[in-house]
Amino acid sequence: MVSMKGISFAYGSKNIVRDLDLELSPGETLMITGPNGVGKSTILRLLAGVLIPSSGSIEYGFPEGADPRSRIAYLPDSLSCYRSMTPPEAAAFHAGIFGTQPSGLSIASKAGVDLNRKISELSLGQRVIVQLSIILSTGPDLVLIDEVLHSVDPYLRGLLFQELVKVMEERAPTVVMVNLNFSEVENLVDRVIFMGKEGIRLDDSVDDLKAGARMIEAESLSAGLPVIIRREVLGRNQFVIYPFTAGEEDVEKPHPMDLTEIMTAFMEAEYVVDSGTKGEEAC
Q1: What CA–CA distance (Å, rounded) separates 130 from 240?
Q2: Which sign, positive or negative, has the C-alpha torsion 38, 41, 46, 52?
Q3: Is 115 helix (H, G, I), strand (E, B) or coil?
Q4: Edge-to-edge strands, sheet with 255-256
């Protein structure tokens, strides 16, 4: 189990992560999401060892004496690695560091990548394909993927997810991804963490989220319901409630929500300064 305890990190005088506690179970797939600037990518960099926390500790649960970085695959949003090399050169260099066999770059070939060109000369989507293929070839126990999939077209995203699922089935690594395209990962992730301005606002399984979130159209609601956001659409009030308990009085036709709708509601609530119901349970 990977455990982050009391983690804080700041860029200069700006605090990005404060007193973060987070545990990752072996084999689970976790999505971290939230508005810009709340520390999502910073958490991945801390887990990858790219950044060192100013306070707190990270325990990986790897065998004693092992360098955690040798068991971690990290795909950053910058994609700056190995830019002066061709994909086969980069694969061989990476494998030499980790003592593994070089990636065969099969998905890069399927994606039509010219393996004789330098990585710096490839398109952004092609660089994502190449680097994911390389980092997954080392047999990692922890896979960290930052928000880069939006730069890849639907066909290439399909190839990427196929490769990731293959690794998940073969090795069952812990996977942490920063993502804002919820519909594409809804059936892949087990757990969602929503980061708000004040830290972790939500930490639940996808199944619990979908079972417990409801959208209700009504003039008003009884006091005590946990309203995430209230909005007005075509002259009618919409309330997003989480967690919703079946059998709530005075509630008619609660509509189930998919992951995209749920996360959009949480995101909207973060951006709304004062909607009149944000953070309230009485409506």
Answers
A1: 41
A2: negative
A3: coil
A4: 227-233, 236-241, 214-217, 255-256
In sequence order, the β-bridge partners of residue 200 are 195
pTM of the model: 0.88
Bridge partner residues of 236 (DSSP): 233
Closest CA to 210 of 225, 231, 189, 196: 189
CA distance 272 to 269: 5
The sheet that has 29-33: what strands, in order across it? 72-75, 142-145, 174-178, 29-33, 191-196, 199-205
DSSP one-letter string for 202-221: EEEEHHHHHHH-EEEE-S--
> Which amino acid, residue 193?
I
Quick one: 125 exposed, middle or buried, by C-beta within 10 A (0-12, 13-18, 19+)? buried
- Tracing tokens 């983690």 back to the chain, one arrives at 7
Strand 236-241 vs strand 214-217: parallel, antiparallel, or unpaired? antiparallel
| Cβ atoms of 16 and 39 closer than 8 Å | yes
**pLDDT tens by residue, 7-61:** 999 988 888 999 999 999 999 999 999 998 899 999 999 999 999 999 999 999 8
DSSP state of 77: S
Tell me the sheet residues that pair with 178.
Answer: 32
Helix, strand, coil share (%) of the chain residues, nearest 5:
30, 25, 40
3-state secondary structure of 31: strand
